[in-house]
Specification:
Elements: H1 6-24, H2 30-49, H3 57-72, E1 91-93, E2 101-104, E3 109-113
Antiparallel strand pairs: 1-2, 2-3
Length: 128
Amino acid sequence: MDPVSPLEQALHAARALVLADLVAGEVAEADVVSLVEDSVVQRRWWVEQWPDGAAYVAGLVAQDVQDALLERYGRWPLCPVCGSGDPHALDVEPELGPNPHWVCHKAGVKVASVGSLGGSLGGGMPSS
């Protein structure tokens, strides 16, 4: 059996982290999981072109899925920190860097690492 390449390890890890956040938000329906797979395919090409970018792929896949969900369903993940005002989505930081995390820019706080939204979200389908 051949060892898994660092590229494939990074892509599998990114997929798992984003899927964990989707499951935590109770939005891991088949069509949403397909969005993750589409992003992983696109990011595979990107990392093949720039192997040093493997450490950034989890944040990029999270952003890709977030953007695709916005187009189809609405904002995700909704901020669990701000209890009042208009619902707003968390952002991925850094936009291009290792160890991505979800942040609320309104409150100025880190909510969770990508893949660790677990107990932070209320769940449910995104709302626009």
